[in-house]
Structure formats: structure tokens, C-alpha cells
Amino acid sequence: MKRTLVIVKPDGVERGLVGEILSRLEQRQLRLVAADLRTMDVATAKRHYAEHEGKPFFDRLVASITSAPALVMVFEGPDDTWRVVRTMIGATNPAEAAPGTIRGDLALEMDANLIHGSDSADAAQREIAIFFPDLA
Fold this sequence. Notes:
The protein has one domain: 2-Layer Sandwich (Alpha-Beta Plaits), CATH 3.30.70. 40% of the residues lie in helices and 19% in strands. The protein contains seven helices and four strands. The protein is globular.
């Protein structure tokens, strides 16, 4: 079994979409192994988004994820769990996300795209260690 990090971002929590998103992931037979509803501090957000530091959208990412509570979770599944989750999430830009994906069905704006999922096995390992060090 492999694990990946999933975050229902503040806009998803505020819109009451946590249940819908969790349901979709669990229906794919992914198993929730850890969850924490938290308002992320700036230092943690910067660690999480470190690969984007210096890019024009970095400050917006940090401001958005720290603006209100987010649900940070770890899911477990087959060797390519991170890929399964990323496919279910859809394109970063909701306008380009396919129908049937979380963003394609539920999001409208790039800055309010509801959800984060690790984009590789290495990223999943690094991100899980940030939020759930006991699982790393």
C-alpha cells in the first residue's frame, strides 16, 4: 500500500464540500488513514509549497491555504495512489478540468480550486512528513 496527501483547501471547507470529496475518494476504495482540520500557519504553508517559491503565484498560494481551516488527510491505496488521486482531482485550472473530476464538477476558479493532491510518490512522502511526521 502507498500513501498520498490530500488537502481540502479552505474554499472547499467553506463551501461544505468535505463530505462530497471524501465520498469520492472512498468510493475509489482509497482508505483514509489520517485527517486533521487545521488553519495552516504561514511557515508550514511555505514548506508545503516550497517548490513554488519565487514563482509569481507563490504568495497567493500561501495566503489562500492559510486563510481559514483546511482538512489535511492521508489516503492509502495501490502503488500509484498519488496518480489515482491526481486523476480524480482534475486539472489545476478548473476551466480545463474534465467533467467527472472533483475540480471539473465542483470548482470554477483557479484561485479557488478546492483541493490539493501530491503530484508524485516523492512529493507524497515529503508532504506527509510535514503534516503527519508520525506516518513518515
